[in-house]
Amino acid sequence: MHAAGSSSANVSLDTAEYIKAEKIALALVARAEQCTHGLKYKLEKKKIPVDIIQKVLDHLVELNLVNDLRYAQLWLKMKIGRGNKGPRMLSLLLKAKGIDNETIDAALAAVLTPEVEIMLLKSCLDKATQDKKDRANIINAKTPDDSRNAIRRFLKMEGFSVETIDSYFNE
Question: What is the pTM of this model?
């Protein structure tokens, strides 16, 4: 009989921990869009057991309250609005937030329309011409072709597609 009472107490403690974790998670979600990795980290900092965190995350994902693709798209729109990082850096920054490559690719495809990518390319190029090192590579080119090639290399390193770079130069 003692074992049954102990089991009941554990279920009660697990339920209490679950409710506490879900309440914290919902408060965070209510304040701002969250990704699963970031939300997990925040709950771990609150000393919530990992198994409880996973149950809460699974439930919130199932309810579509937490959605990594939606988070990545919103995050990209915010960063693109600031316009100083190319697709490669944006991708790396999302990866650092725990977003998987497939989700990053889908978010970039959804957000980086050809028009948006051209706008971002122009912003990155403006920033590069303000940066002494990048400007030196572009401005100190001996010929216009060298300058164009330096710009192309820079934009390719920033992660812009060949099509977008060609489109920029054909404008």
Answer: 0.81
